[in-house]
Amino acid sequence: MAGSFQTRLGDSPEEGIKSPVVIATQSNITLSGTQTIETVAVLAGNRVLVRAQTDPLENGIYNVAAGAWTRSTDWNRADDVVNGVLVVDAFTSKIYQALFSGEYQPDITSVQFNQSDVGAAVVTERTTLTDGQVVVNLINTIPNWVSFYLSGLNVDNGRLDDPDDYSYNAGLHRVTLTESYPAGTVLIAVASDT
Known about the structure:
This protein is mainly beta.
């Protein structure tokens, strides 16, 4: 894939929206171990939006682990996050907006996540790739697919950068990846239904 992991995920001032998470929490959770959150079993390596901690200093995007969770690489430094950045919950298709005062500092800044009105017309579609699969035919025939993301244990979770990583044929609703990924990798398409 073209570009670096840091380029796609770590420079928030250039991004208005973060890569999708598998689920967003609705209540306080323990930040360790695999567990079920809002009916979704999260596995090691999954991204989770932790948005409802009793201590709002803990809120943010985390990577699930068998032991203690760590903040995701796009949410662990001061230059990763700007006030108002959006995060997509791929399971519910809801979008949350980060709100805080001043400059963001991990474990120092109190962050609140509110559901964004922007998410009212957003649709996501998830496709689990087979080994070597490079062509994905989308089920939804929405014309306004705006972003494509990869998620999985063996990939550097992040937004695909057209044209280096994929091509999209709107007439056929088809995504063609420029390289193959391991079986189980998930392609997430994000679109507007308006």
